[in-house]
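Example record for the data management plan.
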Amino acid sequence: MEQSGPRSAAHAARASEILMSGTTLVDSMLEVAANADYVSLHAPYIKGEGGTHGMINDDFLSALPAHAHVLNFARGEL
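Corresponding structural encoding:
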């Protein structure tokens, strides 16, 4: 049976904290995008290898459903 109402999914380094919140942990940001109605960004801007710079790119935006919304509460360009 499919869950009704809001669902949340996340891709993050702190998997144990995510799982305790009842959020579904997914393998990639593209999977988050493909299943999103809303994407809420709350991350610092970190340049360089493994940072947040470029995490929201053309591939991510292309994976979003047409009806999805991106809310950027981040402290810089992601």
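Summary line stored alongside the record: Helices lie at 15-20, 29-34, 58-63.
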